[in-house]
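User: For my dataset I need records formatted as: sequence, then structure tokens, nothing else. Please produce one.
Assistant:
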Amino acid sequence: MEILVCVKRVPDTSENEIEVNRDGTDIERDDLVYSVNEWDNYAVEEAIQIRDKVGGSITVVTVGDEEDEEIVRREMAMGADNGTLLSDDAFNGSDGKGIAAVLKAAVEKGNYDLILTGAQADDGAGQVGGMLAAMLEWPYASLVNLLEVIDDKKIKVGREIAGGNQEMNEIELPCVLSIQTGINEPRYVGIRGIRKVASLDIPVYTAGDLGIAADAVGESGARIKRLDYFVPDAGEGAEILEGDTDEIIDKLVELLKAKGGIK
């Protein structure tokens, strides 16, 4: 099975204090520590487990610049077979549809049975996987937390849906799936693995290589414009109930009655 996993380099929230810049157009990006998007790690791990069971190969792809190459190599060190960087100034400022269009062009240069993305990335929109599937006219499932290959034409997919319920579907290949965290436990990437892939060639494709018109993507092609970043005003702090267990229970009951939570 030929699998493509779309990955993204994002600010590492465990290593950074995220602040909005002065004019409110973006976050402060100077000196940020970056890493691979958490959801994408689960997608790559799932691809590795599928390949190890049924055979085939895994390619990881990202849209970015030369600095984004590091996450491609990181996922190759994790176990992906190949990596691809889609890089062109024309891609800068693309909205979700623009990124999906760039990925679609890359997909069409290969012959893939399955495309995996993370359920969402740093902007939280969770839209690229669905848009990519629509452009390719392939079946799509989001929030996938169970995946089982039936044969070379179908897979079984479990989805997390409202109310903590689980939905099971059979989907024909090729298809696009957005992977939810918790579907597996991504493996550790060691120094030995990173060194092993450090000198491997990573193909770079520009807009011209992909046959994409420069004005169809980037800021000029974006239908969605980000107007403002801001930090919401802090609300009131939580009320801490003190005392022994019985006293806390009594206080909680009185508060719930006062707020109309119980009668």
